[in-house]
Fold these 4 entries.
Entry 1:
Amino acid sequence: MSPNKYFPIRYIPFGLCVIGTTLSYTVLDDQPKAGRFLLLFGFLTLVGIYDLLQTKTSILRNYPVIGHLRFMLEFIRPEIRQYFIEGDNDEAPFSKEQRTLVYSRAKAVPDEIPFGTTLDVMAPGYQWINQSLAPTHLPSHDFRIEIGSKDCKQQYSASIFNISAMSFGSLSANAILALNLGAKKGGFAHDTGEGSISKYHRIHGGDLIWEIGSGYFGCRNSDGSFNAEKYTQNALDPQVKMIELKLSQGAKPGHGGILPGSKVTAEIAAARGVKEGEVCISPAFHNAFSTPLELLYFLKKLRDLADGKPVGFKFCVGHPWEWFGIVKAMLETGVYPDFIVVDGSEGGTGASPVEFTNHVGTPLQEGLRLVHNTLMGVNLRDQIKIGCAGKIISAFDMAVAFALGADWCNSARGFMFSIGCIQAQTCNTGNCPTGVTTQNALRQKALVVSNKAERVYNFHNETLRTLKELVEAAGLNHPGEIDAPHIIRRINQHEVRLLSTLLPEMPAGLLLEAEHIDPSLNLPKVFELYWRRSQAQSFKILPI
């Protein structure tokens, strides 16, 4: 048992204030000067009591009295906030501006800024969308799409902005409750992550995308293999709207993961279908299939057992010939996933070795465009919806993703920010200061579900409201109309290019007709190098 379980060290300053108040009051009759200390300690004690009882700020609930130092320093010295208070260092995955954007929208306060852009518009990589002289006016920002291919019997009307995969166990119970309640109120989906469906996902009844990873948590046998009966029990739950098979993730593609036995609590064990206290392993590969054809038949099995609910897969693009082999398997079998989620290597909230974080997997831009172009080239793009994730925070991030071929966007860290994450980067220690990524019961109580659920709803709502304004300014009627020619990127100080010039679109059906890719189309060499050498029977590449 932890020595700090009942009175954690972070409560010592508040405790000293209480002791100081008591002692000052006790000696007040004999020591009149003690009145000054009584006023001081009494005031701080009242502050601490308020901090513990208020429901808006997790930091103050977990750090009564001393938590105010953070906000004092933030007010006096923004630089201190940047380098010490919020952990915004060279390794922090998101900037201060991005977090501020989310915090503002989560609190439903105006996020407009005066005096022009804070970005360097002359810097290489700067992007923008041009406005129209004939802007449109849209009645609603509740943009939705229908997900479900020809074999789907229960199409899902999904929001174009949803909560990306984050498991219970990685996130606290209160974090899961807040995310799902916010999703319920806003009418958007909550991806469970590969940790399966916990009791906390079910309490509020928000729409779920059930993610199944290589550990088959929630539908596994004791040896780690797939269990169809357990799968069916969860898949037929009306709250589960779609099933997503995770092939890989942006944080650590091809790596797998291990949850130490010390972290496998009774609740986590129950959700995942493993034994409490035993090491929980997610292998780097699936044992239910080993070829593209077997993958497609497994997806068909999942759809049939789920009574025709939308079934798809998520992956961070790796070897292109493996992806091409999956597409060829679709053509050979006539079995299509209802959706594909492309995870960019730059995203991911899961912890992983720095080499995997920085240098393994394809970034979202290239991966998303490759998947879109391949499906265009085999005339399957209208059958399969494409979702994406990877550092998507703002409405403009979404606009760029739509221009590259996405039908909807997922965000993980953005919604984590909305429930209070300050990027302290202590997720693996169990000492999260805001109660978002800890299983410590006392720490996670600082996260008040009703308050943070409202912020989840606000972040989703305000982001889509801003996206609506972008779409209107561009003279369009739906985010799905944003295309690569709408986005312009600066190459250097003297040159800009349309995104459609840098990343051209594959002509429909070209891969079905052409023996060789016409170089004049300016398509990536990857199609010329690997399309003909990929195969549906194996993930291996054919020799030249």
Entry 2:
Amino acid sequence: MAFFRASTVRYLNRPKCVTIGNIRLRSTTNLVKEADGIDSKDVKSFDEIPGPGMLEVMKAVLSGQLQKPWKLIHQFKRDYGPIWKQKLGSNNLVTLTDPKDFEFVLRNEGKYPRRVQIDPWLIHRQERNLGLGVLLHEGADWHRNRAALSKRMMRPREVATYSDTVNDVITDLVNSLVRGRSNYGKDNIVPEIENTVFKWSLDSACSVILNKKLNLLDDKPHPEAQEFIQAVHDMFESLMWLFIFPVHLHKRFNSKPWRKQLRAWDTIFALAKTLIDERVNDVTKRLTSGEDIDVEGTDFITYLFIKGTLEIDEIYANATELLAAAVDTTSNTFLWVLYCLAKHPHVQESLYEEIKRVVPTGESPTHEHVNRMPYLKAVLRETMRVYPPVTQIGRILDRDVIIRGYRIPAKTVIGSNVWLIGQDPANFPDPLEFRPERWIRKENEQFYGFKALPFGYGPRMCIGKRLAELEIHLATIRVCDQFTLEPTCDVEAKVTTITAPDRPLNLRFINRNA
């Protein structure tokens, strides 16, 4: 405790002041004892934070609200206000619904920011004697992995070099949509577009990460790729259930979600290893033969292998996790973009007009075109406001903090409900309207960025953010340029850890030049 008090005083001994709710923290005060207008005796304890009990949460689970928790989340905010706590598996979770509160949390991360540790994934790696990647490492090991990956995955200039590779797979996607529509032969509908998009996303990721295009969209059977895709679905779906009860109980009783999670990751790692082995063996042969490889101009895996800053098992872990993440996150977000465009013809036409202004006829779009297309970027941002890839992001701080008058102990999971913030009219006027224009700023107009964090924030933001944006932007341009999209049904969201459509989209793809 003495160390905590001393370190807290050192941290606060800086000129900056921070406002949290109605509390203003001064640079020379003790974080817990003295806040303007609040004496230490007025600071409320963690136990006083309101929130649902385990019985209420279990009732919601049993009533089927787990996959569609929207009403429940709104109810919690009505009942408990802008902050509440609940038990989530083995963790205490504090949920914040005011973006300014979560901004304080993010700005007080330490040198090595901590996200929620996903225990089922960590246990799987330990039991299978597998390495950890950037998703599961903590501390200095996390920082070393993040630094190694960031050069090729987070720097815009580096990611821009993937444009040709990404466009090559998008060409396959567009051709597959044309064939699918023709084979179906009815009302310009492309059936099973979801699986087509999953294969596109996986093939694009393999092309970038492994320098190996799998040609998954050639209408031939690809059983191993399909097995990989299904394993990713199973992993995310079972993970949601593993968050409800402490993971040690799932493990002790060998629950169905636990067995499903382990099988899924075993399949993911086994199939990914086959692909990664091929690339690593090729690099090894080239180095053994004395070939001088330009490390800066080479592909992602070769770059990591030659640089030597990561252990070989870390390279395998990072590549596997990037491939798995690409299947459900990038693909589902792109599906939502297509759905939103189909549901809002005026938005679709405004985007088409921008495409025709910026991208010359007959040319494939590039990152340079994307940089001159504010409406395209606004469409993606508005889609992720309405359908965020994940509904909640969280952090763990290494010091006690006071938020809205409550003392929250160090090591507590503090989360921001991204979905609820995006639906709050205080943050976004008329939140039920799909309006990309809200993201296009006028000259000198300021935007409070913490209202929208679909990829997270800071050093712990999604490592695949830049690549996912590039893929979705370029694919949206190509699809919108060739087709007019029309819906055939209304679709709602469901949560399987990832926010996904609850039924097939069955969109119509009508040739613009027909």
Entry 3:
Amino acid sequence: MIRPHSMFTFQRTALALAACAALFPAHAQTPAETTIAGGLGVFSAKGADRALFNQYSGSDKDNSVAAMLDIDYSLRQDETGDWVDFQGYELLGDMRELNLVWKKPGEWKLTAEYGELVRNEPNQINTGLVNLGSTTPQVVALSGGAGTGANVDLQTKRTKLGVGYTKIISPRMQLAVDLKTEKKEGSRLFGMGFNCATALDPACLGGSATSVGWASLMLPEPIDANHSQIEARLSYALEKLRFSLGYYGSFYRNANTALNPSVSGNLFNPVGTLLPATASLLGYLNQSVALSPDNQAHQLDLSGNYDFTDKTRGNFKLAYSTASQDDGFSSPSRTGLTNLDGEVKTKLAQFGITSRPMPKLSLLANVRYQDKDDQTPIAYYNLDSVGGSLAYTNRNLSNRKTGAKMQASWQFNPDYRGTVGVDYEAIDRGEFTATSAIAGTSALRQKTNETSVRAELRRRMSENMSGAISLSSSERDGSGWLKDNAGLGVTEVSLSDPALATATFMPTLADRQRDKIKLQADWTPNKDLSLQFSAEHGTDKYNTPSVYGLHDTRMNQLNVDWAYTLSSKWALNGYLSRGLQTFNQTRNAGYVMSFENTSASIGLGFTGKPISQLQVGGTLSYVDDTSKYTQGLDSTASAYSAASLAASGGLPDITFRQTALKLFGTYALDKKSAVRVDLIHQKSNYNDWTWSYNGVPYRYSDGTTVTQNADQSVSFIGVTYIYELK
């Protein structure tokens, strides 16, 4: 269930008590401190009416009652200096956490943790799928139409286990080792689709009045994976030199290599008629879909710092890593290869220096070099668009990044401090693999360079007020654009080529001008009131040889936080935040679109102690997030596009609004026990045309639908009894 009492610390289980008794049977020690908290909570709504609330609550959405148990245990042993802390949270729910720290300060420390995290899919699935959530789902069309299948809830669960040990070998040397593993199980939204009207297979005909030639299917991804990590670090300190040697290893293993659907019989066409699917379409829909493959990575690094003088310090980091993916394919590729045999080796070198040569002057500089060497074998995997022959290979994705940073700060006087800086980054993506091909992008770039300049002025306007203004500007350009020749390498294109005017270019490679301004203020007029304010505005402008694509973006962000102490017993706090982000882009022979996302949130909180035994508090918050799509037409747009826009009016808005009220009160019954009452009310409104429009859900080709209640409202009341043992 949710943890309404998270403002308190709770302590430890009977198992921990028994373990500590066995470990420390007869030594002088400070009495153990144990706090136990247990209680019950009741929800006002079930199922879809609290889907958003229940997403990470750890409670069963179809159960109105939830139980809670938290324990916290602490033991200090005076004679040996041993120190034991143990916490157990949500022990009766699906989000339980166990944490143990056992240490002898100055000598060693042992840590252990166990945790569970459950995510409930807020969308409701209605389907006729058989073996849903397995690697072999069977698609069965709902002959009765959408909504006549079974309701299914998707869920994923993460279970983590970790141990760590730190040993102080000597005053100069320390060794730390951490091991973590996480198991992830369940299923999540996933799917596949195919349009049979494709030049890759002339025999795969499109739909007709008597058959279905394309389909989209909702096939949940089955999850059964494990991710393990190990990190070890040996640190050593001399008088001026401090360094550490570290190793990091990552190991991902997926028990499910592929999704193998079984599709047969009839499917719905776009207008909702149940018709036989063509044999060619079924052949594609019944192919295996590869899932995340096993992979592993290893990294060695040497890092540290050196004091040249009492005013100048240098730092460095050298690292070498290798990442590989040699898991077998679910079925041999057309080339006969059984695995990718992918491997990427990365070298990193970073050096920096900080100095204060004068009392008023501070300097900083560093350089960074990273060489990513993709050693994955090149092989033919992809078909051409004419005869379906193996014509294209994968690409080598090596790159080299070089970066540098310089910064200087000057304290003009006690009230003014200025900072200026320059950043530089260059990326070289290497030679384009001649036998590969790209789709959907007209040209690439081998090199890009970006230079940024920034300046900041801070001022203390009074003893209780300070502020800062910062400006930054960056410009990115690069080498010439390279046109892909479909398996025959690339050629540099002339900017005067008329074909470029309607081409598509990647915004991450395009020339870009980025400008940003930020204001900050911190005001504390008296000991009772504090106020923090920040405002930020930024723009990006893109330039490519084409008149289409992403043109510009803009962002604004405003934040205000405040706290006010009414008296020694009562205090208020609050916040206000508003953000705006826009994208303007154009598609050749299609739409002119301006996307605008506006998010606003406001909150008000209070804490109080009306009498010595009673503590109360609460928060009221509101969130409003709206995405708008303002659409027009390019001058070359087709009549069909014009008719579609006129009929639909364009894409509708996506809105999310939520109001949440949280109240609590804790009453001390005596010195050892207390009762806490929590009240939560949450009201949400979510309107997303991705899954439905005007109350009509999107229907997959087998009649499956994915829906969510647009309006959800839930209340929760919980009562907790807290008892402290000493």
Entry 4:
Amino acid sequence: MSDATSNANAIDAPTPEKGLAAADAKGPVLAADGTPLRKSLRRALRAQKLRALMLIAPLLIFVLITFIAPILDMLFRSVENQIVSDTLPRTAQVLPEWDSASGEPPSEAVYEAFYYDLFAAVEARQHTRLGQRLNYENTGMSSLFRGTGRDLDDFREAQVEYIEDFAPEWEEAEFWVSFMGGEGGEALLDSRRDVVLALMDESQRGPIGTLWCATFAACEPAPGSIDIGYTPSAEVAELLPRTAEAYADFALITVLEEEDAIAEEEPWEAVYVALAQDLAETPEAELAAFSGPQAQALVDLKAGLADVETQSFRDFFEEADDDWLMIGPWRTIQTYLPDYTTGYFLNAADMQKTPDGPEFRPENERIYGLLLQRTMFLSLTITFSCILLGYPVAYLLSNLPMRTANLLMILVLLPFWTSLLVRTSAWKVMLQQQGVINDVLVWLGLVGDGSRLVMINNQFGTIVAMTHILLPFMILPMYSVMSTIPPSYVRAAKSLGATNWTTFWRVYFPQSVPGIGAGSILVFILSIGYYITPEIVGGTTGTFISNRIAYHISSSLNWGLAAALGSILLIVVLVLYWAYDKIVGIDNVKLGG
């Protein structure tokens, strides 16, 4: 074929394109409604494409929500680490300045920031989640956070009691609302509102959560639409900054989390602690210049608190648990302060994130590399087993009369009518040492009663059970391809003197390779993600990495590590798919036709 046939303008004979070009040279060709013909055609083409898009739009949206969105969410969870910085916002600002290599615990400022962060987290019931997250990296952090959270109310108890006893109104909720309220403090309230919402609400983290909230309105209302019953006073916020922040946190969490009114609830102990701190650091002249009704009371309160015994923040945490004076917990918090982390992927690769950089875990803690190797080996073994068992069946079905082949096909499809759990449990019964197969072997005299074969809770049991379950997925693609191979090719080869083996190997088998490829891809991808069957019959040596993913999702609730393992598994499958395409060619994979 010449190049002229592929280019309409290079053909000497008249063409529609040449006709339009000649007509345009004389003047624009008009449609029946007077619109230029080219514009009308483009409009019609756009309308046609839009109709086609609308037809597939429901399917596209369904695939996006049920398939693409979960994958993107999994990829995001594998690096998302905002829980630490959201739960400890003040600590996140001062802890990075601490040098963990010094061997000394952090400064008093770090303990102070940590106290106020932890108090708010306890009231929002989020400190246990933070402890659980950090416990993945440093065992014991979960119990450390829980135990310390129970002791927070006792900090500087003497100061708290002195303020409460100073005057009756200092224990009244309405007094605090009027004392802390005013005008000009909207900026403070907005900043604390963002912090508290980030602390309380995990559903809006990441692009998928944001899309879900925007689409279904399933999350917290917009920050500006929340009314907590008071506006901070700018003068109080400037005079008593810690108190204003602590009271704003109290008000927001009381309204959002506990759904109570702040005019009916006495402030937290942390608010009294903050007030005592602010009064101790504020000059008496500034307190006296306060324009509010409590100016003299603040001066008197400052004078009275000077004689009350105080305790440093560091001493309090040491008293709560001396582990807070160790380097380990603070180093873990500092390491995982960033919003995004490679820690989950490092853990999935049997490594760990340290202040000095990634390093391998101890030899006895490396399990994921072994699980990945085992998963690949067993999946490939199961795939080859299905090929060896399925090819003769597919060959027989494709060469039998249609009526007989359809009857036998029912036997191939019969396992689909039985529950996966039932089929797997049946193999557990058959393969155990007192099971059917061992009993038959003992009865035949092939195996002694005292030396029964161990065929369950190991890799052999996994291979047998999964080969039986996945065999139909290999037979069906091969059968669909083999049924399209013309029998005349085989007869022609034999008529030319080829033997049965040569005819099969040189003529029939190459034409059936696309079916083998399609079945292999299908079986391999299904087997690499199986976890029910290996969990039941695999024991400790026959489980897959998918079993560990299921464990982290349902038991340990370490969704980040589960997402990282799933992402690695996805990458491995894509790499193998790419290698298969380069070696065999994905165009050679067929399901018949």
